[in-house]
Amino acid sequence: DPFKADPQRSDTLVVRSERPCNAETPEDQLGTFITPSNQHYVRNHLWVPDVKDGDNHRLVVELTDGTEKEYSVAEIRNNFKHHTITATLQCSGNRRAHMTAEARATSGLQWDIGAISNTQWTGVRLRDILHDAGLSVDMLPEDAKHVQFVGAEAYGASVPAIKAVDRYGDVLLVFEMNGKPLMRDHGFPLRLLCPGHVAARSVKWLNRIVVSDEESWSQWQRRDYKCFGPNEGSKVDWDEATSIQETPVQSAITSITNISKNRLANSELAKVYGLEEDAVKVAGYAMSGGGRDIVRVDVSPDDGKTWRQACLIDDESKGSKAWSWKRWEIAFAKHDVAKHVVVKAIDESYNCQPESYEATYNFKGNLTTGWHRVRVSDDG
Length: 380
Ligand code: MTE
Ligand code: MO
What we know:
The chain is mainly beta. It contains 7 helices and 21 strands. Strands 5-4-13-8-9 form a 5-stranded mixed beta sheet. The mean pLDDT is 97.
């Protein structure tokens, strides 16, 4: 049983599969800016490698000419400058269950809104390691097009080389999350963190990096994590399709709460939205890929007939670009709230989520970003 050495996990995670472990961050933990490490969603394709001596764990870096350099995790930690960034990881299958429910059947784990978490990650820049290994990071050789990553249990993926060496791309080899050593489920002792991209590229339990003119040959790069047209069915030409890298604009409602007029009185939300009666508060997250900031979150209290802009909550996200989700909140007079509350977010390139799920339907259910529509319970 390859899973027998898997770690103990918090029993508040919402389990979608046991072996391998796939579990969502619970809804009541999606409301804070930083997700507690033991509440971070878990997405494992296989078992969790049991690395006993983290410091001596080895990473091999191979360049396009075949030269290799080897590092222990202790050397990486001791010999390179540390950086801390705040970044959201989102599985490209997050919200897949909504595409299934609102459009058609999809294959894959039927995630709700919790295959996403936000963390402070500490590590060293991949750029610095590649430079040390002999790569000309400021003027990439022509055959350095992709950087491939291999995990200790055989998972693999790659990212474009220009992202890997970008000074402002903040791609890290991380050994700490939220100020503590990486948890085993999240890649102990070393993982890649490629912010702004789907989390599938942030390879855990990293033991090999290969600079190449080709993408990773792993099935997860070549036969998964791609999208196809709504008409294309499941007999598709995988080689023709482009791998998912940066993630599109996304948002979700994480809570809807009734607030009596007494409790609302003098609150910031009451002032902003001019509320003097019983109200309904709606809160959630919004994010985009590529470091694109969220500029606006529109919320409708009546299934899309009317809209208002939510308040974006200030946070202290570290990093060169907007790698973290934005939390938002809004309140409506109770009598203005109909059956469904709806949210959509807009990023700084003015990308907006599609209204329908059919618009981006793909049989794998990747990148589900249709307007999140939540039924308001009748029981007040
Ligand atoms: N890395 C390895 N080695 N094995 C994996 O199964 N899963 C990927 C990525 N890196 C995976 C991996 C996917 S699909 C996601 S969504 C993220 O890790 C999940 O990271 P987390 O479990 O820390 O949330
Ligand atoms: Mo994922």
